[in-house]
Each structure stands twice: as C-alpha cells, then as structure tokens.
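Subject: sequence -> structure tokens, single chain

Hey, anyone have a minute? Need the predicted structure for the following. Not urgent.
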Amino acid sequence: MTNSLVPPAGPQRVLALAQLANSVGDGAYYVTSALYFTHVVGLAPGRVGLGLTVAWAVGSLVGVPLGRLADRRGPRGTAVLLALATAAAVASFLVVRGFLPFVLAACAYASAQSGLAAARQALLAGLIPAAERTGLLAHLQSTLNAGLAVGAGIGGLALNAGTRTAYLGVFALDAVTFLLCATLLLRLPAVSPAAVHRGHGLGVLRDRPYVLVTFLNTVLLLRMPLLSLGIPLWITERTEAPAWLVSALFVLNTGAVMVFQVRMARGVTGLASATRAIRRSGLVMLASCAVFALSSGVSAWVAVSALVAGAALQVLAEMQQSAGSWQLAFGLAPSDRMGEYQGFFGTGVTVARTMGPLVLTALLVGWGTPGWLLLGAVMLAASYAMGPATRWASATATTIAGPSKEPVRQPVPVN
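Reply:
Had a minute. Here:
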C-alpha cells in the first residue's frame, strides 16, 4: 500500500472516484433532508421519522436478494442499475407532496442504496485481490468522509439560504452524483456472474457462524448513531458544555478518519489480525464511554475536555473496528456468493441506525453514567466474542456455499 491517501491507478482509483461522487451528494442530502421534508414538503416531524424507519427496515430486507442478484447477473451491471435507481429515487423526492408518496420514494431510495452497497462490495471482491481489499476499503472510507464533508458544506449553504429552490438544488445534485457514480462504475472491467446453485433455501441465514459474526458487528456499529444522536443529546441534556461542541466533535471524527483510516488498516491482513483489531477496539470503546461519562456534573471546561478526549478514543475504536470488520466480511464469505453475503453483512448498518436511537436514548439520556458504562461493557463483550465466532465460521464446512467443485471458504487459523 502506498503512503498516499489516493489509491493506485486502475480499478481501485475508479472505485474511489465513484465513492467520492455519490458521497458528496449524500453529504448534502443528510444535512438538508429533514428540513426539506418538514418545511418544503410539509410533513410532520413524527411522520418523517416513521417513514424513514419503515424505509430503512425495507432496505435491510432487500439487501440480501439484491446482493444475490449481483452474484447471479454480475456485480458491475447490477451496481450500475442500482446507482441509476438511487438517482431516480432521489429525483422523485423533488415531486413528493404527501406522506404515502414520501414513504414509497423513501423505500425505493433505501432499497436501492442497500442493494448498491452489496453489489459494489461484490464488484470490489471480483476485481481486487484478497490481500488488497482491506487497504482499499480504508481508502474508500477516507474518501467517503471527504465527500460527506464537502457535501455537508454544500448543504449548509442551502440551509443558510433557506429557500425552496436551494433545497431542490441539493436533491437534484444528489441525483446527479449517483448518475456520475453509475458512469464511473461502467468504466470498470466486468466480473463474471457466479455459478447458479439451486436449493439454497434461506441462503446466508443457514450459515449460522456468519450470522453470529454479523450480529456481533451490528452491536459494535452502535457507535454510528452514538456520534449523530447519542453524544449530541448527552451534551445538551446532561452536560454544561456548549452546543456548538457537537459540530466540533463531528469535524474531529471525520477529519481523523480521512487522515488515519488507511494507516490504521495496514496491520489488518487476515482473520487473526482482524479479530485482534476488533478486541482492541472494544477496550478503547469501553475507555471512551467511561471518559464520556465523566463529562456530566462538572464545569463547562472540564466537560469539554472530557468530551474531546472521549471523542478521540471513540474515533480510534471506530477505525480499528472498521478495519477488522471489513476483513471478516470478505474473509468469511464464500467467493461465489459474495454479493449475497455482503448484502446480509451490510444490514448491520441499517439495524444499528434503526434501533440505535432507541437504545442510546434509553441508556445515555435515561440512565446517565451507568448507561455509558453498560454500553461500553456490551461493546467490549461483543468485541471479545468476535474471536470465537470467527474461529467457528472459519472452521465451518463449506457445504453451505453450494455444490462447487472447489472449496470456496477454507479454514483459517484465528488467534
């Protein structure tokens, strides 16, 4: 891996450019969508929340069949079609005027996004050697954060203007970025579809070790709504720190990932190093939760110091956990069903974002310091359980993957 934050020329760089394109649009969408749907479309905030929850629940269900479609029909063509579908879904928001059309458009958007993520992972697996995948995913994560930051800045301009035209411009921009993403994906070499195997039944759900690994990773992904919801609520409800610190901590997180994620991923080269990274992330996350808890009931400057320190530990844990989980997601998946397995592994993100607000609100705002300590303990337990779960998954017979003549998942020693 090079020292540059830019991946090598070829498929890796094209994948990064595609990631950059749609992440700019997504960044603008994320910071403006709530106000657009409430102020421009005229929906009640509760209905917006309900609609998005339903949409992402649907998206989590269709991720696996769309990933299976990528395996059967080829990941590049499937990814291009789903990028186009995402662009169309975003464009439909421009003409949505009622609750039911909003829910339908949101379901289409979430479904296309979930399927696109699975198809792109399958495409990456087909184009990039196994030893280089985690490094490339680190590049893509840095690219994602850079794009989101740029997009958030564009969205901020629209919020400052506060006009209907400005909001519509943001949604149009998001749709265009997915069209650009589809165009870039077309530049990549085609990956042959996997052989079609009949009789899978429940498919990936029959692979109980992989299901367990995905569940444990979902627990660890509670860190995602922690940054966007848990910490802002904690700061405003339980500490004397100023509200603007929420933005500063977000900048700290995205900036650290942009600069250090590639470096943090270099030591993760196999299943053993992946589980070690995840164990370390659990320890760091427990320390982060304990430090966050210290920010309550103290003066403003002490609270700010504790919150900044906690956020620094949290992003360190995030980068370690991300690198380890990427390696496990690919290393434990059958090579001929990569899209299906990545679609299932990706549901962890959706579940964490859906259930996380309820869990974190109850733990942090409701329980305070004990809630922080319980959250850290749960994440530590999940991180340490990942080792035995990975050993079980790597030693599982490959019959689940289908009647291939050659093994598609070999047992690999895991520490």
